[in-house]
Amino acid sequence: MAYKPTVCTASMKCPAVVVIQDWNGMNDYEKERTRMLAGLGYVGFAADIYGYGTPVEDMSDWMAASSAHRGNPDLYMSKISAAIDKVKTYDFVDTSKIAVIGYCFGGTGVVNMAILGMDILGVVGYHSGIQPNARVVRGNSTVPVVAKVLLHSGVMDDAATDMALLEQELESAQATYEIDRYGSGVYHSFTEWSAAFPGQAMYDQRADVRSWESTKLFLAELFSGLPAASRGPEHDTVTTGLHNYTCNTTTCEGYMAYNASACTASMKCPAVVVIQDWNGMNDYEKERARMLAGLGYVGFAADIYGYGTPVEDMSDWMAASSAHRGNPDLYMSKISAAIDKVKTYDFVDTSKIAVIGYCFGGTGVVNMAILGMDILGVVGYHSGIQPNARVVRGNSTVPVVAKVLLHSGVMDDAATDMALLEQELESAQATYEIDRYGSGVYHSFTEWSAAFPGQAMYDQRADVRSWESTKLFLTELFSGLPAAAREPECDDDHDHDNQANSTQTSDAFYLAFPSLASLAALAVMAA
Description:
CATH topology of the largest domain: Rossmann fold
Shape: globular
Helix content: 25-40%
InterPro entries: AB_hydrolase_fold, Dienelactn_hydro, FrsA_esterase
Number of helices: 13
Distance between the termini: 29 Å
CATH superfamily of the largest domain: Alpha/Beta hydrolase fold, catalytic domain
Number of strands: 20
Largest sheet: 14 strands, mixed
Structural class: alpha/beta
Protein name: Dienelactone hydrolase domain-containing protein
GO molecular function, one term: hydrolase activity
Strand content: 15-25%
Strand order of the largest sheet: 3-2-4-5-6-7-17-16-15-14-12-13-11-10
């Protein structure tokens, strides 16, 4: 256990997070993760699932111990429940605020917890074993999924077909969940700092950083509630205006928002170009541009259709969007024109430009990436990623230069279409992430006024989490990837490790297992 005794007391109780070990036992890795949780103001508790004295010396031991629990979900869940019950005995723990995180074998455990309906606020799984033969399958069960679920998955670790099956089960249970997929070349054990088995189990700094930040936001939601969605009303500190520019053979009218006192010729700011959804550049994109200005960027809402294009009703939207979707060269020329316009302003750092797109605009940014446009990064929200709506990479050898972040409603984008896009991005060795939101998250989930049940619906949670993810992504693009969080032992943290060892019972939770020299063998983890 790790916690800050000056923060967590009987009179100031703290939330607790139970960490479920990976398959080689509870050791230094899980202990450090608990200290990281303590650094966030929680009580971190690394559970020992196997029990005192269980051999964990080599791979045959790990396979035997993990298989004994994977093959007996009742046993496994009883061990997790015992750890939770132990945590609840401490008077400095807020027993109404407990979550569980699992790694590898532990990730399978938290998936099982959710599917079996265990009463817990939320679970987080990292590089979890989610194959149907490794976990509990929901089948025809009507047990409600109580826990909110967050899963972090390497695209080269979990098969798209297995992920699609899990999505179906969570949708049928009407669970609140998110699955974040990291690529390219992100394999098993991507958060384990010493994992170094090429092609099977490899540490990945970027996936580690982004998954941890996502988890921090998730825990804050569990323990403090979902924050209000960000908005960008007009404000005196933000300079706004319409700007005409030539796009292809017509005139386009973009909308710019920035802080004129912060973004100057001597203090240039990064810029983010916003590509409209299918009903034209209007108040929605303008507000998103102002939100970007509030983050210290120059926000520029591009007009793709061009001045005077009819956008009065759905027939107009279909005509204008189809004319561009069906002509990628035209579409890309319009996006390039907007980027070129932004680069003309002396307060813009022309080396730091990203592009965000919504709906039709999301299709545009996917096309940008696949076609190899030279831009730092792109973000797509509820993008049209069906093969008949976007550019398909096929046998192209053009490199994908832009980093890619896509936010997708599970009820919007088909799993098969997403799997195809993953294959294309993997073949291009792109740096990308795809975040899937459920259940019941449809198209237009970030559009505040969307209210078409079963087709296009605003979803506050998906809006909040996707925006926070985007903010972190933009920081990475413009300032670089931060170092991964670590937490060495610290005098400020209270550690019950030795105390627990002294009990030497079969259900001891804090065992000092020997540190393993290498995690390479994790790659051949038993299914």
